[in-house]
Amino acid sequence: xxxxxxxxxxxxxxxxxxxxxxxxxxxxxxxxxxxxxxxxxxxxxxxxxxxxxxxxxxxxxxxxxxxxxxxxxxxxxxxxxxxxxxxxxxxxxxxxxxxxxxxxxxxxxxxxxxxxxxxxxxxxxxxxxxxxxxxxxxxxxxxxxxxxxxxxxxxxxxxxxxxxxxxxxxxxxxxxxxxxxxxxxxxxxxxxxxxxxxxxxxxxxxxxxxxxxxxxxxxxxxxxxxxxxxxxxxxxxxxxxxxxxxxxxxxxxxxxxxxxxxxxxxxxxxxxxxxxxxxxxxxxxxxxxxxxxxxxxxxxxxxxxxxxxxxxxxxxxxxxxxxxxxxxxxxxxxxxxxxxxxxxxxxxxxxxxxxxxxxxxxxxxxxxxxxxxxxxxxxxxxxxxxxxxxxxxxxxxxxxxxxxxxxxxxxxxxxxxxxxxxxxxxxxxxxxxxxxxxxxxxxxxxxxxxxxxxxxxxxxxxxxxxxxxxxxxxx
Length: 475
Prior knowledge:
By secondary structure, this protein is α+β, with helices and mostly antiparallel strands. Helices cover 61% and strands 8% of the residues. It has a single domain, classed as Outer membrane efflux proteins (OEP) (Up-down Bundle), CATH 1.20.1600.10. It has 10 helices and 4 strands. The protein has a 4-stranded antiparallel beta sheet with strand order 1-2-3-4, with helices on one face. Helix 4 runs antiparallel to helix 5, helix 8 packs antiparallel against helix 9 and helix 9 packs antiparallel against helix 10.
């Protein structure tokens, strides 16, 4: 009779497992444009994000720093550990599909009782007891919980990819800043040498009575200004090196350089691709979407909690007051059956839990939609920065060339007594600032391309991303 009843329950449960409460997740439909507003060139060109970082950033020393960071950066290691944690949590959730089994052994050291029944487990008997319980997932509670756990795991994996992309971008930008400061420091030192020469000439002219003390004071003031700029640039260099050292997982130390800033290659084109690709590529958007999927699945879990749980149970064991008779026929006992447990007084609380789960899903939806808007803004901002930096760099090049010519003429006229010190002072000061600006715009151009690369998703696709162990698979 027990076997018949058990078979009936199993068949009934299999018929009911098609039931699954809660909404079915689907990606929210977001209206978008056919191309980015500030994109240049044809939208059919492959996106810059399809380029691997080792092809985009071709400085070998920079590549070595990035590989070190991917292997040793602590934030990335923490993100990898979070993936491992949620992978274990997903396996825990999956185990709910399997029956739960327990075993109990009792070996009383001493006993005193007036009644001891063979085949009846009690603290006074020697007994071995096995218990088996399996919840029939009629309402889909376990399935929805597994969906939520799987979505949480995928969100953490995408977060790990986002950390890796952010890390590559941060190392690249810091490295270019380091090269900018190197170049600017070199300009400042050369300018200081030029001011030293001007001071020497002004002193000679003062001794000869050709010029006044005012000329000398002005040149010495400009030389002091160059010395102060050198000290400030050296401070910034040290701080950027320290920042970059932490990014690569090292204590503050000197960072080796490769190519100079002027020798860094700039891609002739930086196509952004199609806006629709952004939703499929950017890991932070994919993570936000998986968080929305998990929140949606938890609505089904909360709804299923409001319905009765059907559990199939079985118990088998042996018990006897005498250890020598423990495995005899009279000592054997067992039972099998089904149980139904449903909420009574807790029903209102479970209703509130469902409302809370629905509110969390609405929060996740708003967070996803906001992440999409932010992603599009970051792409457009980066496109604007790339275009502006290119134009600024060309303008500064023309300005530097013009000021170099102006300075040469001013120095010749000053040495020949045809012009006063102000012409030289203004020309050299303007050239100094223009050369610093030229270097700054070159770094800005490179950094803007890196920012665009990051905003577009950074060259990792769900099919080819392999950043978990600190290495990125080429291909």
